Amino acid sequence: MGSKKRSNDDSTELLENNILTDSSTVMKKKKSKTDKIDTVANADSDTAAAAEAPGAASSGKDMEKKKNRKASDKLRKRKAALEKSDGLPASLPKSRPVDVNSNSDEAGEESLPAAAASSSLPLNYFTDLASSDPSVREAAADSLVLKLQEIQKQYEMLPDKESADGGLMLEAEKNDGLDNCAPHLRYALRRLIRGVSSSRECARQGFALGLTLPVSVISSINLESLLKLIVDSLSVSSSMKGQDIKECLLGRLFAYGALARSGRLIEDWQSDKDSQIIKEFTNALIGLAAKKRYLQEPAVHVLLDFVEKLPTEPVVTHVMEAPELHKWFEQATEVGNPDALLLALKLHEKISVDHPIFSKLLPVPFSPGKFFSADHLSAIGNCMKESTFCQPRVHSLWSVICNMLLPEAVVQSEDVTSIPSSSKKQKRNRKSNPVEEEAANNIRNFCEFFMEGALLSSSHDRKHLAFDILLLLLPKLPASFIQHVLSFKFVQCLMDILSTKDSWLHKVATHFLAQLMDWVKDDDTKRVAVTMALQKHSEGKFDNFTHTKTVKDLAAEFETEDGCTLFLQNLMNLFVDEQHVPEEPSNMKWSLEPCSLNSDQSQTTDDNSEIGSNEEKDSVGTTGNSDVLKSWVIESLPGILKHANLAPEAKLRVQKQILKFLAVQGLFLASLGTEVTSFELQEKFKWPKTATPAALCKMCIEQLQLLLSNSQKIENPLSKGNGLEQPDDPVSYFMKFLSTLQNIPSVSLFRSLNEADEKAFKKLQETVTKLSKEEKNCGLSADANKFHALRHLVVQLLLQILLHPGEFSEAASELSVCCDKAFSSLDLPKGDGEGEADDEEEPAVMDVLLDTLLSLLPHSSAPMRSSIEQVFKYFCQDVTNDGLLRMLRVIKKDLKPARHQEDQDSEDLDGDDDEDCLAIEEEEEENEEMGETGESDVQTDDSETVTSVVPMAVDREVPANSDDSDDDDGMDDDAMFRMDTYLAQIFKEKRNQVGGETAQSQLVLFKLRVLSLIEIYLHENPDNPQVMTVYLNLAQALVNPSTAESSLQLLQRIWGIIQKKIFKAKEFPKDESMEFSALATLLEKNLKLAAKPFKSKKSGVDPSKKKQSAAWNRHKMITNLGQNSTYWVMKIIDSRKFSETELEKILDVFRSVIVGYFDTRKSQLKIEFLEEVFRRRPWIGHQLFGFLLEKSGNAKFEFRRVEALELISETLRSLVPINENTQEGSKKTMKTHLKKLSHLIKELVAKIPENKARRAQVRKFCGRIFQMVSSLKLTNSLLKGLGPDGQTACESALGDLFLNLKNTEH
């Protein structure tokens, strides 16, 4: 239908253009001649339509062709007649003129008067009006209106207008009411009206503009007639369908819009206030809007645009009196007409009077408060809900409603009150603004009754509308209103949508969330309000449910002190169940409000709290926030400062606020009411109305530990001057704060302590005080680090006593004693008789401290372990050999029983030379019939035989009987003291469990923590002789099969420490306390380890691929250990100035390894490893070169001889350098080894390998030797050594390579 309509328009337009071109010279015609023009136009239209109809009859086509030919003939004749006339210029447009006279052979026609004949309307005006270029359209409209003004002016000057009208009607009939308009103007109006219905390019915009201008400047145009002409020209007939109907209706809308914007309606009313044109226009426009829904909103905008230009009087007396408007408003609430509501709101805004026409849409009397009341929102709910029809575009109604919800006064007031520089007194004393209160009430009602009640509980389209409305509100929304907008139901809806990615609304919700994040980007107040709303209504699980990082990102964007403080205060208020979160930071600082110091008050405000306590207790229960939400609050507190880039002073202030809150909520309870005021601190403290569960109190303590630990990492004690007061330190401030709260009678610890814990708690408090004094007295000395680290550890231990009562009292007492003994300047209280009883033989203070640290490791939290590591870092230089061995014993300890302990002990004492000191033999070699557990245990015991290697061996304190039924009676008190306390606990726990799996996992965890201390020791003491002890014990643990079985993580951790802290360390032990024999023996064991073959387990069942892969990886790790250990031990040997006799023993070790390599297939020694050893220590390769040649020439296995060629070649190259300065020396050395070289070559060529790669290696080696011999002029000597048989074999195997050497004369 659309293509046919355009075809008709184009045909008609073509004929009209041709007629218009020659209209100024056409003679007077009768009215029937105008009908002929229409006939011709209709004929062309029918022709176009027929061309598109495939089923048209051939006779019909012939008739159309005849009509077209007849019209063309008439046009040609007319053109010839015009050329002969005197009224036209010589050059005419080339378009074909259409003769409107049906009888071309009639008598001569009279011409138009000269004035009319001289006027013409260029065709390009109408064409340019449809251009997509706005400037072209505007220029065409301007030119058109100027031309029409000129034509109309000439027409009005004619004395006989009747004769002019009758001469050429151009489709403009006399009864159209435009009698005072020139024919060209009447034609132009008709064509412009038809043009606004065209969908071609920008025809509607251009023709609407072209219609607006003539109507606005040519007063001769009658508006009533023009309205009738618009209806008649764009009427919808019964034969129209689909697109044709839509184009006609849209054309009428654009025509009415042009008429409204022309200003003529207002001018006519001003000239005649009784004129009904405005009422008729309103009726026509509203009647058009009622035809189709898609016409309603643009029609309302046309009417509103017109009403804005009108005075109030015609709006009341004409616009609002239109019958169609009354009918429209009457039915609006029933059918759900959002456009009627929009029009009513704007009209009421215009007239500012309560008119009866608004009775069903607006409250009487009108006010925003009544408009957003629950009853009225229920009445107009249908109108607002039906605005979803225009999605994805948002209906214009919502911008008006949003402006009503958030008037400018509220937005400006919010901007003023959110200025950070405003004083606290001004914020406190600022009276509530009635406008703000009304706006808050309005938006609360709107969100509750409409958003939640009508949209969020309805279809997807209406939920989409809810998101769109909030996006409109966001730019002007004050932070204090966020709690109403992001309500419980909305947040729940948002979470449901975001949790399902295939939801239809998922993209909508994601876009809303992105816009929300962008909105709060530069405003901490809004960011806090949004974060609180999301978490409060999701029970602290918004990120978990939505699978996003929204809350995490919001909490990480606070970069200023004000922002961090505001977030902190909101979190605290959320924790203590303050449902209303004020927007002002000053109102939230519950812990900073000074109390009024009246003389009749007691030390606390317990009396005031007790007054309302009985009344409040009955209402407590469901008002509190959930424990999950409170746990999120607790976890978020230490992270506030994580991303904030604050000055040290500002960071300390925020830290103190967090510290006080965690201490109050985690450590203490108020026995009277929920509020207590401290006069000493000038602060008021609050607790939730419901008692805080013990689990949350523990969380507070854990976060308090984390906060103190983080402050320790940031602090640098040596950077503090003597003039800096200690209370600025978070630890000192915490202890002072703790002491102050303990002195308040109505405040008590959240749990009661037993006598031992209470005694330890008080002793630790005193210890911290003394340590603080000593640290301050030390100033910038190095001892300040030790005091500082101890002070942090003591505070962490104090908190651990509250977390785990009954477990740390003994460790606390020991730590206090260590502080007392280690620093004579401390005057710490002594125990009740404990000090006098141990005067006989007291262990070293560092041993006691180390045992205490080890006993604290198993059950300690991450912050406490960090403090332990800091203490160990500053004291590790004082660790005794005994203490270090106890730490290493923990790493090697295994809970599995050693079934053949006695037999293995006896073997160890025998010192069998074949026994592997580093436990490198697989368990299958020891006892293949034994199960996996027994095999592993045997190897564990074998690993301890390394103690015979060095004099500083580790004393094995293994129980005599280690079966599962054994008890600890075999250990005396001294052994229990030396053995780590936690290991004894592991033994006890193992007896009470089947299989001991839990004990094993705990032991692995303990080993990992001890390894961290050992790593610190190696880092701080890289050149200490004890590094060798650490290396030997860690190597034993690494090669022990039970280590890999217990934990792969433990195995990798040990290997990482050995590599990074021992092998790759810049420093290494250079002390001469380690004897040469021990180093030689250690080197021999490492070389055996590097040559250790991989053996799969001999079993009837094939092991799984996973076990095979794990075994192979472990084998590679052990081989790598042997190789790197060899490099490291050789570095130590080279650093010592040993005699030649001692170094010869080192060479003997390598000779034995080379013998094993050439004589057995079992050796897995990599030839590349020996190359690296010879490269790093060239003297070894030079001394062993002759032996290497001999063993290679007499090798039992051909593949070994070929593999060693590269090693021989590289060693010979370094041994015999060929240059002018070393020619004689190299020649002499070469002669020494020439006989063995000749023998090796004879063996190689006599048994040339069949493998292509090995054969290439032989040729390459021989080529190198021949080149060196030739360069040193020793060819004849080599040939002599080869002998006739050898030369023959060389010629046969090497060919030209040997012949070239033989032909060389030397």
Automatic annotation (TrEMBL):
Residues 61-86 have a biased composition (Basic and acidic residues). It comes from Capsella rubella. The lineage of its organism: Eukaryota, Viridiplantae, Streptophyta, Embryophyta, Tracheophyta. It is found in: Nucleus. Its main location: nucleus. Residues 26-115, 417-436, 586-623, 923-971 are annotated as: Disordered. Residues 596-612 have a biased composition (Polar residues). It comes from the Eukaryota. The keyword Nucleus applies. This is DNA polymerase V.
